Amino acid sequence: MNVRPEPSALLADLLPATAASVRAMRRRRLAMLALNLATLALVALFAARLAAQNGWRAVDLVLLACVLVATPWNAIGFWNASVGLFLLHARRDGVMQAAPFLGRMRDAPVSTRTAILMTLRNEDPERALSRLRAVKAGLDATGFGGQFDYFLLSDTNRADVARAEEEAVAGWQAEAGGRILYRRRPVNTGFKAGNVRDFCLTWGGAYDFMLPLDADSLMGAPAVLDLV
What we know:
The protein is α/β, with parallel strands linked by helices. It folds into 2 domains: 9-104, no CATH class; 111-227, Alpha-Beta Complex (Spore Coat Polysaccharide Biosynthesis Protein SpsA, Chain A). The protein has 9 helices and 4 strands, in the order αααααβαβαβαβα. A 4-stranded parallel beta sheet has the order 3-2-1-4, with helices on both faces. The longest helix is centred in the N-terminal third of the chain and has 33 residues, at 19-51.
């Protein structure tokens, strides 16, 4: 006899816990279905009226069929975006009401290891490092900073910029201590994408997640924690 396996702890946390929440989820799904079907019906009606203005021809039927095939994906995207905009801006804690497990995930301690990468190629190192410093400072302030390591992956081929990178990183390492690694490749195979690939092959196995940033990227700590 086949026995249905119990859901994992994570999956159980994502499932509705009460009959009321099950009914609420069913109502939301039916509302989304109704909105999408109504949109499809209106588009089909207007497309059919437009196609039939000069009588029906084979090409009109083909065009109408194409419209009917393409419309559902656009309608789903439109209503998903509209509902998301409403939840974010028109209701207090709308996202938490729709997906309460997100709040529990945000409150949970970070136990995974994440490598934050910044790729460089002949960019101003002071400006680039100032952004990565801000990311690190924000994460350290949350109390979970020890779960993140920082890698500066350089493909710089200008000697003056390379020296500036090395000096800037050395100063940051002396100030902040460990968990900051700088590596400049003498051979720039694949440029920045190749450097990220080399990171994955060399250090990737030591981490649960990787967050790649470009030299002009800046993320706040809440956004980073939401990802991990």
